[in-house]
Amino acid sequence: MLNEELLAVWLRLTSVIDNQRLAASYEASRDRLSFNEAMVCGLLEQDGTLTASDLCRRTCILKSQMNAILRSLERRGLIARRPDPEDRRRVALRLLPEGLALYRESHRHSIAIVDRLIRELGEDDARALLPLLRRAAAIFDTFS
Questions:
Q1: Is 95 helix (H, G, I), strand (E, B) or coil?
Q2: What are the start-end ranges of the H helices in the chain?
Q3: 8-12, 60-64, 79-83, 92-96: lowest mean pLDDT where?
Q4: Is 82 helix (H, G, I), strand (E, B) or coil?
Q5: pTM of the prediction?
Q6: How many Cβ atoms sit within 10 Å of the Cβ of residue 102?
Q7: Cα–Cα dist 128/125, whole Å
Q8: How does pLDDT run across 17-30, given as a tens digit for each residue?
Q9: First CA to last CA across the chain, in angstroms?
Q10: Kind plus residue range of the DSSP H or E element containing 81
């Protein structure tokens, strides 16, 4: 059945990308980022500061899971929390230099995996795949 085949390929792709990235990152350093930690750090790098609610909304990670991720990143000295000067109930999160360096290393490994995929597929097929993946992502965005 088509649905079973699509699901199997999807799971295989995501697990290969995550496992390869983590394995390469682990070889480079005993301190590494999980997939969710890397997502959070990437958003903080991109936007500067965000709240936990912002991160939950953008990643579709549950609040309890996000809190555990943020505690881990903070305990490791990769992010900092500070009260929002305009609204003391809100806490702004920002990426510290150590977190930025670790995120960029993790991202470099992810890009190397994608570069290998492009080489193996060929640039034309990789470009042809892009619109389909964008459409699939847009469809998934409507599920939340």
A1: strand
A2: 2-28, 35-47, 52-59, 63-75, 97-121, 123-141
A3: 8-12
A4: strand
A5: 0.78
A6: 23
A7: 5
A8: 666 555 555 444 55
A9: 25
A10: strand 79-83
